[in-house]
Design a protein that fits this description.
The complex is a heterodimer of chains A (479) and B (446). By secondary structure, chain A is an alpha+beta fold. Helices cover 23% and strands 38% of the residues of chain A. Chain A has helices at residues 2-19, 75-91, 125-139, 208-211, 214-231, 246-258, 263-266, 335-341, 374-379, 430-435, and strands spanning 24-40, 43-44, 47-61, 64-70, 109-113, 147-166, 171-189, 192-203, 239-244, 295-297, 320-324, 327-328, 349-350, 359-360, 364-367, 383-387, 390-395, 401-406, 409-413, 416-420, 425-429, 437-440, 445-453, 458-466, 469-475. In chain A, helix 1 (2-19) packs across helix 2 (75-91) and helix 3 (125-139) runs parallel beside helix 5. Chain B has helices at 6-20, 75-88, 116-119, 125-139, 200-213, 231-244, 247-251, 312-317, 345-350, 403-408, and strands at 24-40, 43-61, 64-70, 106-107, 143-159, 164-181, 184-192, 223-229, 272-275, 296-301, 304-305, 335-338, 354-368, 373-386, 389-393, 398-402, 410-422, 425-442. The longest helix of chain B has 15 residues, at 6-20. Classes of the chains: A alpha+beta (479), B alpha+beta (446). Chains A and B meet through strand 2, strand 3, strand 4, helix 2 and helix 3 of A and strand 1, strand 2, strand 3, helix 2 and helix 4 of B. Strand 3 (47-61) of chain A pairs parallel with strand 3 of chain B.
Chain lengths: 479, 446
């Protein structure tokens, strides 16, 4: 209902901006409803729900970009805001050295919705709590074989509805339901602690909880923490082969491939915040990894957290082959960066809220699968470490120097997975990491994550994932 | 937004809640006017203007509690919203609960941290950006990226026990990064609650100057170093101490400060105080989310942990009083102040035998919040110091430590302090330079 009410406002705002002198205008009505339930150490916290509804208007005038937003949805005020966006753009022209020009992407006219079996609106606090109680029933009171004195669990159900219109003729209506879980587990045994932060989720309705086997997954993680505390020994310090699990393949793909290949970073637009990139505009075609290094970003994956078949600039999105056979193949684009590169946008522009400008975002970034079975891949390793899950991680702002510290990790000897090792550290440059890829398994798994970027910050839901990835000849770091 | 009466919104919400039978109700509304200009490669990339408001409502009945926020602020929508929230209580279990205290408090806006001149700032932002870019250029930066953000927020609260008040804050911040050549960058900040305190040129000059000095930077040898943290870097680390000081974090197993009340958690020279309001403070307000008066809270005094941050619920559990730090779910700080030392910057550098100066950082991530083990990635100006003298610029490193060790190894604090609030520091922090011994520096395998 709310979205229907806003449609006329959006169309009127675009007209008003054009008549005020904008060469381009767009308006996006965004309506979000989120319910969340939280439990801390088995105790219910207050139930939480949030509603957000408003309009964001973006214009180009004299080559400068202006953005204005409000949640006071009155025609006079919204039209005034559209004019203000044009004035803002013009007022900034004295500091404009390079005019912003959009590409000539075909304007989408489409209504889309992420598939859902059981409507997200049915997720009331009682349902959310029941799921968390089921998890508690598996991991509370040492039931997973380890004491977990610190347990914070949160389950959320969110519906995002959008109506987007621009002066190039795009008209897009979207319905995007999501289920997202966050858990922080702290295990204690023999005076030592282990900690795991868990994110799981998909787009869809209430069926997501069963589809992703959420309760089993959290129980398994808790059991593993006990094993880490009881059995993990020192990791090797000599040169080893490293097998990255789907979780590690995914975070590496996201951090050291997806981010540096966002064209706005490449062009310097995020320089003061998330940073620039070790790649430049002329880096397309540069060899960065072995022929086995293949990384993609695909917004069209059904059920994914980054499912965005049409982006927030009214462009139909498509799969992007970021690294193909070890070569930098494609950047993530919006209409402005595509215009600068003389290309058409590949539909990577997203905004998380009506009051945030759309910017280039990853969707679901992953290492492409290979043709090994997991056993065959492990069989290739004489002396190595299997990084299964990670805790601490970070990367520099050019996306060149990264670190992943494992929580669950195993020694591999003569092609067999052996005992657990404690907190091995992979601290490595991007070319070394992707240059060391020797094989990939067939199996694919994805993790949910929230990717931060922009100013003000925009936390965008994404998936990261991939197969098991074998890296040859790696020197591990140390904490 | 000029017509929006946030006090009337609260009246609507609380009277509806009472009529429905809520035992406790809180309505807290924030109205925001935010103006921003961003630039990159010394050219503006966008100019933004956002005016919005949000109403947060808390209801309790029979020890069942629910919190909700909405930006649908028409009167009919607010009434429907409160009714839906009240109805949702029926399906809930009892939760950790304490009723709102008897007695009504009345709050007037604090004059600290509010500058009427900043409310109307907008068209001046391009000129401020230009000054910063030019100052950087003059100091050696070749191109700059940055953001200037002028924010005003008005708050109003009303509770079912009659507590009522309003407050407002203004702030203006510039975050500028300048680049001289490949891998040579510098960072500058100007953060102020008043227009008079804002100096975009000084921030630009600092960014440009560091960018110039960073030419031909090289990697350091891995190992343990004395590290001199700028206020920008120190504030980023101090914010994680503030998070650990929340009683919620302690209860959730996410704090290295668990079981440390009354114990030494830092060198005795280290003092951390939180202020609800303070002169120059860019954040905070006179009341917290439960209507409790905010105050100055010594968190770490002479290296000893004095208290956790509490709201009414965590205070009951810990058999103490609220520190005026609600967050309905998570208590938190408002404006952090790290006590000044008595050293000048030059004296601190002179004290360093083998050390590294870090001027900016990002991506601080924890291996384990319970133990406080973390690492962070330095960026922009970083310099090797040998026998008290700066010898060369550094790049490509990572600093790792654990918070208990790090804060027990504070060697010197500067006399001068700066307000820090930017992309990597959410809670405004008045912070000195901090010299810390024994921080582990690592490099990536190339």
């Amino acid at each position: 209902m709310k979205l229907e009410e806003g449609k006329q406002l959006a169309e009127s705002a675009v007209s008003k901006a054009l008549s005020a002198g904008a060469s381009y205008a767009e308006a996006r009505i965004q309506n979000t409803r989120a319910r969340q339930f939280m439990m801390k150490n088995g105790e219910s916290q207050p139930s939480f729900f949030a509603e957000g509804y408003g309009i964001g208007i973006r214009v180009i005038s004299r080559g400068a970009l202006g953005f204005a937003a409000t949640n006071e949805m009155k025609p006079g005020l919204v039209n005034e805001l559209a004019e203000r966006a044009v004035k803002l753009a013009r007022a900034s022209v004295p500091v404009l050295k390079k005019k912003i020009t959009f590409d000539s992407s075909k304007a989408a006219r489409k209504r889309w919705a992420a598939p859902e079996k059981i409507k997200i609106e049915n997720a009331d606090a009682a349902w959310l709590r029941k799921v968390l109680l089921d998890i508690e029933g598996r991991i509370g009171d040492g039931k997973a074989g380890v004491k977990l004195p610190g347990r914070f669990l949160a389950l959320g159900a969110e519906l995002e509805e959008k109506y987007y219109v621009n002066s190039d003729g795009a008209k897009v209506e979207a319905r995007l339901p999501r289920i997202g879980f966050f858990g922080s587990l702290t295990a204690v045994e023999g005076g030592a602690t282990a900690q795991r932060l868990l994110e799981q989720g998909e787009t869809g309705g209430l069926e997501v909880v069963k589809r992703i086997k959420l309760i089993d997954k959290v129980e398994e993680e808790a059991k593993t923490m006990g094993k880490v505390l009881r059995t993990a020994g020192k990791p090797p310090t000599d040169t080893v082969d490293v097998v990255l699990s789907p979780e590690l393949s995914g975070i590496a793909a996201h951090e050291s491939v997806g981010h540096p290949q966002e064209a706005d970073r490449v062009l310097g637009r995020e320089g003061a915040q998330a940073g620039e990139s070790y790649l430049k505009a002329d880096s397309l075609g540069r060899k960065i990894g072995s022929v086995e290094a293949n990384v993609s970003d695909d917004p069209t994956l059904l059920h994914s957290m980054g499912y965005t078949p049409v982006d927030d600039e009214g462009v139909v999105a498509k799969k992007r082959r970021l690294i193909k056979n070890g070569v930098i193949n494609e950047f993530l684009h919006n209409r402005a960066t595509a215009g600068e590169f003389g290309l058409e946008s590949n539909g990577a522009s997203r905004s998380v809220s009506f009051d945030r400008e759309p910017i280039i975002r990853m969707s679901n970034t992953f290492v492409e699968p290979g043709d090994y079975s997991t056993d065959e891949l492990i069989g290739e390793v004489k002396h190595g470490v299997f990084f299964k899950t990670f805790t601490e991680w970070n990367i520099d702002d050019k996306r060149f120097n990264q670190r992943y510290v494992a929580l669950e990790a195993y020694l591999i000897e003569k092609g067999e997975v052996k005992e657990m090792v404690k907190a091995p550290v992979l601290e490595i440059t991007t070319p070394r990491l992707w240059g060391s890829v020797k094989a990939r398994s067939k199996s694919m798994e994805f993790e949910a994550a929230v990717c931060g970027k922009g100013d003000p910050q925009q936390g965008a839901p994404v998936w990261t994932g991939g197969p098991e990835t074998l890296l040859k000849g790696i020197r591990l770091g140390a904490r | 937004m000029t017509g929006l009466d946030i006090g009337a919104l609260n009246e609507d919400a609380v009277s509806t809640a009472k009529r429905l039978g809520a035992e406790d109700a809180i309505a807290l509304t924030a109205r925001v006017k935010d103006r921003m200009i961003r630039f990159a490669n010394s050219s503006v990339t966008t100019a933004n203007h956002v005016e919005e408001a949000e109403l947060m409502v808390y209801l309790a009945k029979n020890k069942k509690r629910a919190i909700a926020s909405t930006s649908n602020l028409e009167s009919a929508s607010v009434k429907r919203f409160v009714r839906d929230l009240f109805d949702s209580l029926k399906g809930l279990p009892e939760s950790e609960y304490v009723s709102l205290p008897d007695g009504a408090s009345k709050y007037s806006p604090s004059t600290l941290g509010f500058d009427r001149k900043l409310v109307e700032v907008g068209e001046e932002l391009p000129e401020f950006a230009k000054r910063a870019i030019n100052a950087s250029l003059a100091a050696g930066g070749k191109r700059s990226a940055g953001v200037i953000d002028a924010g005003t927020v008005w708050y109003a609260i009303l509770t079912s026990t009659g507590t009522k008040g309003s407050d407002a804050r203004t702030s203006i911040t510039l975050n500028i990064r300048s680049f001289a050549e490949k891998d040579a960058s510098g960072h500058g900040l100007s953060c102020s609650s008043t227009l008079a305190g804002f100096d975009s040129e000084e921030a630009g000059r600092r960014a440009g100057s560091d960018a110039k000095k960073m030419k031909e930077a090289s990697e350091p040898e891995p190992g343990a170093y004395q590290v001199l943290l700028s206020p920008t870097v120190a504030a980023n680390i101090v914010e994680t101490v503030g998070m650990a000081a929340s009683a919620f974090s302690v209860d959730a197993g996410m704090s290295y400060l668990a079981e440390k009340l009354g114990k030494k958690v830092a060198d005795e020279s280290f003092n951390l105080t939180d202020h609800g309001t303070m002169k120059g403070g860019l954040g905070g307000r006179v009341f917290d989310d439960e209507g409790t008066e905010t105050r100055s809270t010594p968190v770490i005094q002479n290296g000893v942990l004095k208290t956790y941050f509490h709201n009414l619920t965590t205070a009951k559990k810990w058999k103490t009083k609220s520190t005026g730090s609600a967050g309905l779910v998570t208590p938190h700080g408002w404006n952090y102040e790290v006590g000044a030392g008595d050293s000048s910057y030059e004296e601190m550098v002179k004290e360093m035998r083998r050390g590294i100066i870090l001027t900016s950082n990002w991506y601080t991530r924890f291996k384990n919040y319970r133990t406080g083990e973390f690492s962070t990635v330095p960026r922009d100006g970083a310099y090797l110091v040998e026998k008290g003298k700066v010898t060369r610029p550094l790049k490509g490193m990572r600093a790792g430590d654990d918070l208990p060790r790090m804060f027990s190894s504070v060697q010197l604090l500067s006399k001068n302090r700066e307000w820090i609030e930017w992309w990597e520091v959410d809670t405004p922090t008045l912070c000195p330079w901090m010299l810390i011994d024994g921080v582990k520096i690592t490099r990536a395998y190339e």
